């Protein structure tokens, strides 16, 4: 059973995925998010990075339909979304890989790390305020070198989705809570 903190994090994440802000997540929301990221990072359709991201997005949507869409309406409400996050296998097999695919898009030079500017560009499409983006980067850049490595990001993603520690740095991955 998810804790109150986890439910709060999952609710914030719902807002990031509800691209059209209509209170439901559907295939269009997922497509809009991916399209925004690919446009931001100049990832052309059909390229390997584009195919990888679209593949993760399609897996995310199909798994959401199977795990979260309890009423079968092909939309995921906030309640369905939050309830579906109580499945560690969904988090490990779908959402964390989706987050890592996003990280790969942001790593535009392929050096295995994301700069403040690259992270900012990725997070601005999710509706995070400039202040939240700056705070998130500062916390995620654990060693303070001006970059978030894949290892740091992976740790943050696991913290966000799995940790019940209110002080875990990954809690800020999707912006300030509450």
Automatic annotation (TrEMBL):
<dbReference type="InterPro" id="IPR051001">
    <property type="entry name" value="Calbindin_Ca-bind"/>
</dbReference>
<feature type="domain" description="EF-hand">
    <location>
        <begin position="5"/>
        <end position="40"/>
    </location>
</feature>
<dbReference type="Pfam" id="PF13499">
    <property type="entry name" value="EF-hand_7"/>
</dbReference>
<feature type="compositionally biased region" description="Basic and acidic residues">
    <location>
        <begin position="110"/>
        <end position="123"/>
    </location>
</feature>
<protein>
    <submittedName>
        <fullName>EF-hand domain-containing protein</fullName>
    </submittedName>
</protein>
<dbReference type="GO" id="GO:0005509">
    <property type="term" value="F:calcium ion binding"/>
</dbReference>
<dbReference type="GO" id="GO:0051480">
    <property type="term" value="P:regulation of cytosolic calcium ion concentration"/>
</dbReference>
<keyword id="KW-0106">Calcium</keyword>
<dbReference type="InterPro" id="IPR011992">
    <property type="entry name" value="EF-hand-dom_pair"/>
</dbReference>
<feature type="region of interest" description="Disordered">
    <location>
        <begin position="109"/>
        <end position="134"/>
    </location>
</feature>
<feature type="domain" description="EF-hand">
    <location>
        <begin position="128"/>
        <end position="163"/>
    </location>
</feature>
<dbReference type="Pfam" id="PF13833">
    <property type="entry name" value="EF-hand_8"/>
</dbReference>
<dbReference type="InterPro" id="IPR018247">
    <property type="entry name" value="EF_Hand_1_Ca_BS"/>
</dbReference>
<dbReference type="InterPro" id="IPR002048">
    <property type="entry name" value="EF_hand_dom"/>
</dbReference>
<dbReference type="GO" id="GO:0005829">
    <property type="term" value="C:cytosol"/>
</dbReference>
């Amino acid at each position: 059973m998810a804790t109150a903190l986890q439910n709060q994090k999952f609710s914030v994440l719902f807002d990031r995925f509800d691209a059209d802000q209509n209170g439901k997540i559907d295939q269009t929301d997922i497509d809009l998010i991916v399209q925004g990221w690919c446009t931001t990072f100049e990832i052309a359709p059909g390229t390997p990075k584009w195919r990888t991201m679209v593949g993760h997005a399609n897996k995310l949507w199909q798994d959401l339909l199977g795990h979260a869409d309890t009423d079968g309406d092909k939309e995921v409400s906030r309640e369905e979304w939050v309830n579906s996050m109580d499945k560690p296998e969904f988090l490990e097999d779908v959402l964390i890989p989706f987050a890592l695919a996003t990280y790969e898009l942001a790593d535009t030079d392929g050096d295995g790390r994301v700069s403040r500017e690259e992270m900012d560009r990725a997070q601005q499409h999710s509706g995070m305020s400039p202040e939240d983006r700056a705070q998130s980067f500062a916390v995620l850049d654990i060693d303070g070198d001006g970059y978030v490595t894949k290892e740091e990001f992976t740790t943050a993603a696991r913290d966000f989705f799995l940790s019940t520690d209110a002080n875990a740095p990954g809690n800020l991955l999707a912006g300030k809570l509450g």
